[in-house]
Amino acid sequence: MKHPIELKINGDTYSLAVDPWRTLNEVLREDLHLTGTKLGCGSGDCGACTVLVDGRSVSSCLTLALEVQGKDIQTVEGLAPSGDTLHPIQEAFVEKGAIQCGFCTSGMEMSAAYLLSQNSSPTEQEIREGLSGHLCRCTGYIQIVDAVSEAARKMKQL
Ligand code: FES
Ligand code: FES
Question: In a 3-state reduction of DSSP, which class is residue 52?
């Protein structure tokens, strides 16, 4: 039986009815068409599905939609301040060539956002640890680590 829920995502409130076993990832992608959040492994291993819930990074593939009612959910669609402006993290990913196929990118950027909210000047090792739950099959990670470091520099100038 479907349950009526309200989800607050990127500042907007969505009212919908969901089966209790459906994940936040399924609801974001299939019901709300917020497809910036990817689905990779579906088992908590790749990080592609990462979103922020009350400011903390979580795997949306392992989170039931019912669990996050009333919480503040942020997806990559809500990272940039407006439709025609990139977030400094996104700018840095573009500038440093940290995107190839892009499948891992939204999850990487959301974990970078969490990391930089906790630590505005992370070392390379801290960035590597902050992104350790993410797999990228394309870039070799060096450009991604460079991008997060550059994003930290940009965000301090704001
Ligand atoms: S799809 Fe969620 S961790 Fe891989
Ligand atoms: S850019 Fe392709 S998986 Fe990371």
Answer: strand
136 close to ligand 2 (CB < 6 Angstrom): yes
Q: Give nearest CA residue, ligand 1 atom 3.
A: 44
pTM for the whole structure: 0.97
- Which CATH superfamily groups domain 88-156? [2Fe-2S]-binding domain (1.10.150.120)
Q: Quick one: pLDDT at residue 109? A: 98
Q: Which residues contact 90 (CB under 8 A, 6 or more apart)?
A: 79, 80, 109
3-76 belongs to CATH 3.10.20.30: yes
Beta-carbon contacts of residue 103 (< 8 Å; ≥ 6 apart): 38, 40, 48, 137
| Segments of the chain scoring below 70 in pLDDT | none
Task: Tell me which residue has tokens 């909210």.
Answer: 117
Check for a shared fold between 3-76 and 88-156.
Answer: no
Ligand 1 atom nearest to 59, measured from its CA: 2
Ligand 2: which of 101, 141, 143, 145 to mutate, judged by most atoms within 8 Å of the beta carbon? 101
